């Protein structure tokens, strides 16, 4: 294990810093500290809802910033304000704008007020949604709150550097990388290293040998819980000793320990560690020990409740800024007066930034409030002052710090009071409300998906073309041909996953492609679903086009958290500032047993809004979706049918070029009596049942929704119900799962309830996972007879003479 405490080594790097450099760091450290102190006060004054700050971490972050170069990347957590200030990607005014939740991307470029304070990110996209030159900028991926959740993405950010360096075909993409020289810097608190994602990411980085540099800020606590409850031996670097590489050229990590208040040792450690990481692509862990947290965890409480007096005294003595001041004085770099002046100026700078941020945030709202009060007073003039309307106006007029919700709430309640009336004042107020709702929709509800030219809706549909003598082949061969064509078309595309490489995945859709395109583009991974997805997220953020495979849909549970909290909300939480066009390829529905027959669609639908969900019924449809998605810049999950790889299909002549639009159902069979809405493996079962129903005089229309997100954008299903007047929603999820989702979309969203003559029905699986064996499948998931009986019962109720009871 490396250390960073020898005087000879320290002098090498610190000696290169000028007095101006040193005092700049001191000034930045104190500006950040005063920002934390002021931020806490703003919360307690009611000007912000919550505060979590980076005090105590200033000095190590200043050292890290000095090693961070243009082109590098950060995946951090919510205490990295000093680092962001030091690299020039955050101003103090922006810091306070985020604290106030200023919903303006110019004022608060990290999240446009959508994430609580301490969540940082740089804008990687221009106004049209296209990538900027990321090789020339200092880049921060957008933070998320779940502790440890930044680690899977960090693996991908570093992995991209390996691909850019080792794959010559990628050297042309100079806006994303310069020969893979970029380091991915990760930060995490010591308590969060207890998360499984941390250990999985560390292991993955050690296997991959990628330029990933992880800093652990060790302040001994995780909120109120001390290290003895968090980490074996209370020391993360101690228990990771086995990852230390044995020598240069060997696999493994370089591990450093350094104290968080020792400025010269920190400067030296980060310079040496980053150089190894950058040049040799060796992952590095820097355990920054003896860090303090002067204000405790957050504004939710005081750390005096759980820290002893001795601990509090020690923290005061070892405060990193206090120690930096002592070192500057001892080494003769500054006088007491100079440092006092810097601290005073830092406090005043923060005060000015805070005031400017508040005025920029609040003054427009105050102006809107005055406008609303004026409009409301016109209503009062028409209706008199002795009523509830007058009280609403008075309440808003005397509100010293209204928010936009106060304005809209007041207007809506005021309009209730004058419902049914006609007046110019009422029309003016209605117009104001319509405009306000539209503006606030942009502020708070926009950019769930891409707005660029590469958005899904802008991908031109290309029909599949089949030769007259097109042979029938296994479905897997259609996918194989599709992937082959796309890999030839775009060198940025690569695929990773368990068994994807040498054997071409367990169902052979990648068979032979590793041999053809090389291990860098078709790559086996370990069993680590969370970081397989994370590897894809980070690489996608850096301009690459990953296909990450989760072997079975049931195992998506290992990755659903990171999909939900990271990639699904990425465009949203940055208001179009970042994107990660990740494709997650998996397979599900019917096979065998509890853990290989999953259809947990309800869970997925509720977790990944911001991603697309494709549920193709066969491999040709899946290929069409892949062709579309690989030309788009939006993330998606594609669930292939487990029992479809050996079924025969025809390969289109344009197998790598034809595209399928998302959100467009396909009518598989026409009928007049009832509409069955389904998807995936259920399509074959429903079609079989439809054939048997026709034998007893019932003609059903079968619609394959094809994608659940988006869902039937042109209301094809509602049009069908207008003719058939009856509907059955069928799938393999649990009761109340995706069938309930489809019913809500059709009856509520599409308002197709108007066309129904019979009760709408849902047919789902049993409320448990399917047991092993064919009988287990038959009695657990909808079968042909279940579909037949469900439809027949609906028709019997409508016409009992024509359709007498069967049972």
From TrEMBL:
Highest rank taxon of the organism: Bacteria
Residue intervals of the Transketolase-like pyrimidine-binding domain: 473-647
Cofactor(s) it depends on: thiamine diphosphate
Pfam families: E1_dh (PF00676), Transket_pyr (PF02779), Transketolase_C (PF02780)
InterPro entries tied to this protein: DH_E1, THDP-binding, Transketo_C/PFOR_II, Transketolase-like_Pyr-bd, Transketolase_C
Organism of derivation: Hymenobacter endophyticus
UniProtKB keywords: Oxidoreductase, Thiamine pyrophosphate
Matching Gene3D superfamilies: 3.40.50.920, 3.40.50.970
Protein task: E1 component of the 2-oxoglutarate dehydrogenase (OGDH) complex which catalyzes the decarboxylation of 2-oxoglutarate, the first step in the conversion of 2-oxoglutarate to succinyl-CoA and CO(2).
Stated name of the protein: Thiamine pyrophosphate-dependent enzyme
SMART domains: Transket_pyr (SM00861)
């Amino acid at each position: 294990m490396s250390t960073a405490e020898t005087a000879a080594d320290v002098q090498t790097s610190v000696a290169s810093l000028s007095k101006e450099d040193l005092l700049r760091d001191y000034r930045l450290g104190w500006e950040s500290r005063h920002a934390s102190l002021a931020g806490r006060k703003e919360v307690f004054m009611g000007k912000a809802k919550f505060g979590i700050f980076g005090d105590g971490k200033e000095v190590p972050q200043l050292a890290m910033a000095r090693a961070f170069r243009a082109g590098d990347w950060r995946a951090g957590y919510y205490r990295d304000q000093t680092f962001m200030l030091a690299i020039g990607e955050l101003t103090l005014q922006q810091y306070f704008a985020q604290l106030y939740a200023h919903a303006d991307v110019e004022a608060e470029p990290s999240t446009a007020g959508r994430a609580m304070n301490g969540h940082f990110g740089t804008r990687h996209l221009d106004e049209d949604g296209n990538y900027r030159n990321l090789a020339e900028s200092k880049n921060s991926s957008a933070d998320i709150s779940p502790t440890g959740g930044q680690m899977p993405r960090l693996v991908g950010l570093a992995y991209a550097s390996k691909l850019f360096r080792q794959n010559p075909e990628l050297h042309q993409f100079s806006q994303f990388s310069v020969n893979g020289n970029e380091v991915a810097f990760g930060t995490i608190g010591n308590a969060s290293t207890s998360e499984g994602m941390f250990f999985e990411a560390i292991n993955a980085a050690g296997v991959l040998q990628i330029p990933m540099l992880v800093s652990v800020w060790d302040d001994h606590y995780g909120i109120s819980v001390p290290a003895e409850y968090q980490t074996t031996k209370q020391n993360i670097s101690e228990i990771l000793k086995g990852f230390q590489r044995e020598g240069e050229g060997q696999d493994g990590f370089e591990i450093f320990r350094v104290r968080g208040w020792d400025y010269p040792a920190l400067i030296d450690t980060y310079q040496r560690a980053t150089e190894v990481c950058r040049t040799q692509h060796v992952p590095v862990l820097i355990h920054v020990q003896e860090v303090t947290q002067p204000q405790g965890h957050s504004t939710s409480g005081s750390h005096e409740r759980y820290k002893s007096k001795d601990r509090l005294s020690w923290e005061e003595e070892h405060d990193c800024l206090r120690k930096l001041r002592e070192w500057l004085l001892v080494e003769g770099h500054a006088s007491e007066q100079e440092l006092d002046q810097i601290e005073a100026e830092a406090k005043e700078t923060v005060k000015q930034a805070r005031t400017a941020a508040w005025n920029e945030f609040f003054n427009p709202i105050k102006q809107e409030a005055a406008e609303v009060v004026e409009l409301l007073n016109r209503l009062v003039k028409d209706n008199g002052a002795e009523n509830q309307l007058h009280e609403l106006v008075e309440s808003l007029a005397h509100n010293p710090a209204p928010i936009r919700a106060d304005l809209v709430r007041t207007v809506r309640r005021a309009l209730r009071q004058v419902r049914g009336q006609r007046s110019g004042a009422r029309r003016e107020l209605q117009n104001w409300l319509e405009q306000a709702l539209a503006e606030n929709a942009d502020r708070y509800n926009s950019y769930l998906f891409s707005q660029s030219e590469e958005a899904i809706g802008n991908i031109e549909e290309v029909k599949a073309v089949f030769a007259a003598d097109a042979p029938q082949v296994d479905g897997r061969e259609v996918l194989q041909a599709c992937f082959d064509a796309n890999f030839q078309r775009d060198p940025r595309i690569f695929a990773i996953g368990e068994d994807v490489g040498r054997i071409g995945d367990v169902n052979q859709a990648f068979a032979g492609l590793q041999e053809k395109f090389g291990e860098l583009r078709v790559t086996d991974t370990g069993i680590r679903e969370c970081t397989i997805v994370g590897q894809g997220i980070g690489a996608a953020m850096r301009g690459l086009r990953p296909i990450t495979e989760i072997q079975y849909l049931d195992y998506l549970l290992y990755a659903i958290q990171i999909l939900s909290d990271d990639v699904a909300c990425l465009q949203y939480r940055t208001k179009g500032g970042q994107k990660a066009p990740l494709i997650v390829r998996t397979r599900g529905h019917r096979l065998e047993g509890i853990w290989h027959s999953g259809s947990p669609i309800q869970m997925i639908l509720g977790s990944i809004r911001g991603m697309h969900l494709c549920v193709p019924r066969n491999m040709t449809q899946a290929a069409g979706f892949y062709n579309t998605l690989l030309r788009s810049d939006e993330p998606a999950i594609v669930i292939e049918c487990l029992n479809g790889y050996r079924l025969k299909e025809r390969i289109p002549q344009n197998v790598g070029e034809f595209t399928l639009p998302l959100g467009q159902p396909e009518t598989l069979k026409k009928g007049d009596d009832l509409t069955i809405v389904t998807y995936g493996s259920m399509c074959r079962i429903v079609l079989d049942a439809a054939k048997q129903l026709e034998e007893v005089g019932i003609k059903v229309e079968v619609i394959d929704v094809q994608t659940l997100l988006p869902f039937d954008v042109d209301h094809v299903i509602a049009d069908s119900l207008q003719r058939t007047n009856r509907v059955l929603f069928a799938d393999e999820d649990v009761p109340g799962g995706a069938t309930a989702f489809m019913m809500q979309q059709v009856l509520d969203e599409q308002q197709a309830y108007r066309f129904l003559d019979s009760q709408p029905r849902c047919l789902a699986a049993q409320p448990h996972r399917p047991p092993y064996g064919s009988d287990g499948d038959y009695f657990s998931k909808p079968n042909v007879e279940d579909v037949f009986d469900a439809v027949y019962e609906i028709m019997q109720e409508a016409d009992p003479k024509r359709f007498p009871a069967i049972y």
